[in-house]
Write a structure and sequence with these properties.
The chain is α/β, with parallel strands linked by helices. Helix content is about 45%, strand content about 10%. The strands form six sheets. Strands 4-5-8-9 form a four-stranded antiparallel sheet. The longest helix has 23 residues. The chain binds glutamic acid. The site of glutamic acid has 8 residues, from strand 10.
Length: about 500
């Protein structure tokens, strides 16, 4: 068989915000397509009108663009195989449903929901299949005239696949190997419903993968149970030759305990499970997103790529380009991948460190403005350079730097107790006098002056420096003391020391 161009698709149903597991599926499809010089398609599977949520499609597009997962064709991108929204492809599906009916691979069934319910109550583990279909109301047991009459009278019907019993169905999965199941365990799934003139997911999915010349179906593990039916559909259509290869990705598991990662885990443990913030159009409820929580897209991509796959080396920091080179779908794990949120923060920390001070300052400036800081008056880049090694997110910067912009209002009691002992106010008063004489507040220069003054007077180095810090910062933490005084300058440093002398009272 001639080598076909690799074509993959990401085929979400617009039923709400894209879950982080769905993002990983899109990412793996993208990595696979790009490493094979192939195309990536965005297909929207919206045949279930009951579950349609407005805004979900735009959300999916915006989220993946933010992350740098790019499509070559599809909804919003155009292409030769459209339309790419399934709700716009009704005529196509009807044609293929008829093809299966004519070939005797599918049949029409009139059983009402009540009749089906009655059967389920009557027969334990009832399924609609070769054993039971003879006792149901369908075109296999009725004559054609009767079927035509019911349809003409407007009776609602469905089309079901006619599954031949006792055949081995092999799903050849790139991750799981050959999975064989017996067709007798499958039921005659509904492919089409006359009520809304729409196919079900199964039919639309197979027809579209075929028509869009999809070569590889990479999707979540939850679709593995549908795969044997899909193989049978390819057979029924006579499309085995060009059947895509399957890869069912491992589940994303809760950070602790067992089971699938859910939105509730995120709410409980305080992390987002969606790429972007999402406001539910019905309830108005807001779910947090990675973007709004301050994650860099590169960090999210790197973090997600390693949930279910790794390059087989110690290397953890991988750019999109490196991922495209190294990703290997066959090396994905079969077992679920635990969602380690702390690791996500670590990735963001690493990627923030790779940004320049100017880039980080850019992210910090809106936060400063919100706090009412006159940003023009400060060298924000310099301030960022002093604390960036301590942050995971741009939003952490305020807690690390607020004392550059505002004098302390309170002083940490435990630090007062430890450092502001008897005699300390006298020493700090002398320090004020010393600083008043100094013109050069450059970090190294002032450090030399202050340290030699401490040495000459034989003051306690740790206590004196920490008392100095307590008055300037409000507590005994922060970057190098003389970097702080350089930034805030002579006047502010002296003013804070004087306020400290006034306000800090030794505690017993
Ligand atoms: N519409 C399905 C979903 O929402 C697609 C499954 C598949 O990729 O075949 O995940």
């Amino acid at each position: 068989m001639e080598q076909r161009k690799v074509r993959v698709r990401f085929a979400p149903s617009p039923t709400g915000p894209l879950h982080i597991g769905g993002v990983r599926t899109a990412l793996y499809n993208y990595l696979f397509a790009k490493q094979n010089g192939g195309d990536m398609i965005l297909r929207i599977e919206d045949t279930d009108s009951q579950r349609f949520v407005p805004g979900a499609e735009d959300y999916i597009i915006t989220a993946l663009e933010w992350l740098g997962v790019k499509f070559d064709e599809g909804v919003n991108y155009g292409g030769e195989y459209g339309p790419y929204r399934q709700s716009e492809r009704r005529d196509i599906y009807r044609k293929y449903v008829n093809q299966l009916l004519e070939a005797g691979k599918a049949y029409i069934a009139f059983d009402t929901p009540q009749e089906l319910e009655a059967k389920r109550n009557e027969i334990a583990n009832f399924q609609y299949d070769a054993k039971t279909r003879g006792a149901m109301r369908n075109s296999l047991v009725m004559d054609k005239a009767e079927v035509d009459k019911l349809i003409a009278e407007g009776e609602k019907y469905v089309v079901r696949i006619k599954i031949e019993p006792d055949e081995d169905v092999v799903v050849d999965d790139m991750i799981r190997g050959k999975v064989t199941i017996n067709s007798s365990v499958l039921d005659d799934k509904v492919l089409y419903k006359s009520a809304d003139d729409l196919p079900t997911y199964h039919l639309a999915n197979i027809v579209d993968d075929h028509l869009m010349e999809v070569t590889h179906v990479i999707r979540g593990e939850e679709w593995l149970p549908s795969a044997p039916l899909h193989v049978l559909l390819y057979r029924a259509f006579g499309w085995e030759e060009t059947m895509p290869r399957f890869a069912h990705l491992p589940l994303l598991l809760k950070p602790e305990g067992n089971g699938k990662l859910s939105k509730r885990d995120g709410d409980r443990l305080g992390f987002p499970v969606f790429p972007l913030e999402w406001k539910d159009p019905k309830s108005g409820e807001i779910s947090s997103g990675y973007r709004e929580s301050g994650y860099l897209p590169e960090a999210v991509v790197n973090f997600l790529a390693l949930l279910g796959w790794n390059p087989g080396t110690e290397q953890e920091l991988l750019s999109m380009e490196e991922l495209i080179k190294l990703f290997n779908i066959e090396k994905c794990s079969k077992a679920g991948a635990k969602f380690d949120y702390e690791k996500g923060k670590w990735f963001n920390h690493k990627y923030i460190q790779e940004k320049s001070d100017a880039e980080i300052a850019e992210m910090f400036i809106p936060i400063l403005k919100e706090k009412g800081v006159d940003v023009e008056a400060y060298n924000v880049e310099k301030i960022v350079s002093l604390v960036k090694s301590r942050i995971n997110f741009a939003k952490d910067l305020w807690a690390q730097t607020s004392f550059f912009f505002e004098a302390p209002q309170t002083y940490a009691e435990k630090d007062i107790r430890k450092r502001w002992k008897e005699g300390m106010p006298q020493i700090i008063t002398e320090l004020v006098a010393l600083l008043e004489k100094e013109e050069n507040f450059a970090s190294a220069a002032l450090e030399e002056v202050v340290l030699s003054w401490i040495a000459k007077n034989e003051y306690h180095l740790g206590n004196t420096m920490n008392a100095f810090r307590l008055a300037v910062v409000g507590e005994c933490r922060g970057p190098h003391m003389f970097d702080i005084t350089e930034v805030i300058g002579k006047e502010e440093t002296i003013a804070r020391l004087k306020t400290g002398l006034d306000k800090i009272k030794p505690v017993e």
